[in-house]
Amino acid sequence: MLPDKSGHFGHYGGRYVPETLMPALLELEREYNKAKKDPSFRKELAYYLANYVGRPTPLFFAARLTKKLGGAKIYLKREDLAHTGAHKINNALAQALLAVRIGKKRIIAETGAGQHGVATATAAALLGLECEVYMGTEDIRRQALNVFRMKLLGARVVPVGIGSRTLKDAISEALRDWTTNVRTTHYIMGTVFGPHPYPAMVRDFQSVIGKEARGQILKAEGKLPDMLIACVGGGSNAMGLFFRFLKDDIKMVGVEAGGMGIKSGRHAARFAGGSLGVLQGTKSWLLQDDEGQILETHSVSAGLDYASVGPEHSFYRDRGRIEYTYATDDEALAAFDLLSQTEGIIPALESSHAIAEAVKRAPRMKKSQVIIVNLSGRGDKDVNQVAEMRGVRL
Amino acid sequence: MSRIETKLAELKKKGRAAFIPYVMAGDPDIETTGKIVLELEKSGADIIELGVPFSDPLADGPTIQRAAIRALKQKANLRKIFALVREIRKASEIPIILMLYYNLIHKYGEERFADDSAKAGVDGFIVPDLPPEEGKSLAEHCKRRGLDLIFLLAPTSDNDRIKLVAKSGGGFIYYVSLTGVTGARASIASGVDKAVKKIRRMSGRPVCVGFGISTPEQASEMAKIADGVIVGSAIVGKIEKAAGPDEAVAKAGKFARELKEGILRGGL
Description:
The complex is a heterodimer. By secondary structure, chain A is of the alpha/beta class. Helix content of chain A is 44%, strand content 18%. The longest helix of chain A is centred in the first third of the chain and has 16 residues, at 22-37. The termini of chain A are far apart. Chain A binds chain B through residues 6, 14-24, 162-163, 168-169, 172, 175-176, 179-183, 276-281, 283, 286, 288, 290-294, and chain B through 54-59, 61, 65, 69, 72, 77-78, 102-108, 128-131, 133-134, 151-158, 161, 165, 176, 179-181.
């Protein structure tokens, strides 16, 4: 069972944090282990997932997209239809319930695209918790809609104007806040990253995606899929879809942000252009220079614009269990248009990277084969940014 | 005994706490850092803590974050900092501790890092994002070369953590005086006295206190209870405000003398 007791996935993962946080991480691990075995916690979480988040989310057969690509059948796992518009709520709500259980009344979070921030602000409002969300000023600029949503939900958005002013810097600032206020505060990390137990805990809370998809595809097709595709920033929607299928003979593809191309140096494809390192509490693949300084990243999608990747992804990459590739900004934007126009679904720019990969793969597969793409979020938040890129003033 | 441990033992005999100033290597530039270190020694420093700049210093507050950005602009890196320490060693035997984040060591290679540190004349390391659980192999490499890997304890540390850190690494135990990141504070957090006594009793090792100590008065207060007093952001702040390299050296020295006076008052 991974991770091991010290939070390692092979030689990845672990707990590289200031001593101040170690007791809180150990407490969180203990409390999480208790909660996941506690029927009352599971019942409470199941209640909110069904009646508040709107689970199960549908598994939708994308008939027109399938026909257009002329190959494998494409199913979309509609996480975009979960409350707040992305898979992030699965984890944020579960961790907020855990915080209540532990007795922490203040919640902090980091956000890139704003989806995790919105999900956390939502869960905090639902459960009556104080909430502050750290967000890079560059992301605040390109995700103005989500910033205002968080404010409407009663959260305080704290701008982070240092470094690359994106997700990485927001995480550092959230960790500094947590180091200062750890006695009263729970940090809801939004992805399968950071120090143990976050990668495992977030994975478990997101694994509901794959659990549902498995039952749904068996019902629809009478067999398991041939391929799963998901975008990978930190990697929580991908791990959420993949986890329950890891033991099956199914191909899995994680899609990183190729930005303006690997050669340009302006991307966030850690497996294509990175190396082993330690950042923000965990050991994993990392975009860094020869001296170990973290490189700035670029992606059209704020949610994938991050220098490292969840340690469990690194582990399964080494074993060859999950294949990783990337889609460029242009490919993702083309997929954004394609899905909007063939299926009437505007995908998040993050999820558009996964769609872009399906566009490449499906035509090379048999019509009898089945792909599930995780449609991790909806694209409303990206409409302004895409309009701006196309010179349209809204 | 290492050079750090020897120094602390000597001072203890005299009933004095060590004065341990921190500066960021490469701020305002590498050459000036060398001058600042020698000036700090002249002004009463017993041990020097030298920061190595990192792009994502998650245990540091704004003052040291800004210093790291300045040092990175000067292209300060481990290779240049080892060269700097070799230069300092021509003029001084003061114990030198590097404070740096683990990724820099990982990328350099733990063994090569320990080798090059020892060759340059570095005495020990503080790695704020490396708890003992993850630091076992580095601790081994250090031990074999007589280098001290210094672990930290914090106000949140319980008895289990104290026991773990007590048996890990070398040099001294770094007690983080407050629940938070580095940076000057208006007052010392309550309970430091009790915590330091407890850690010393449980570990039998010297305990130096840092984080948030920013005035001669606070240094004096800490010198009464700790084996060493670490001052970082307040000195880095003086260097930041200096108009040029010469003024940075002078200001750091002047402030260090004030801090030293405070420490001597506290220790007597």
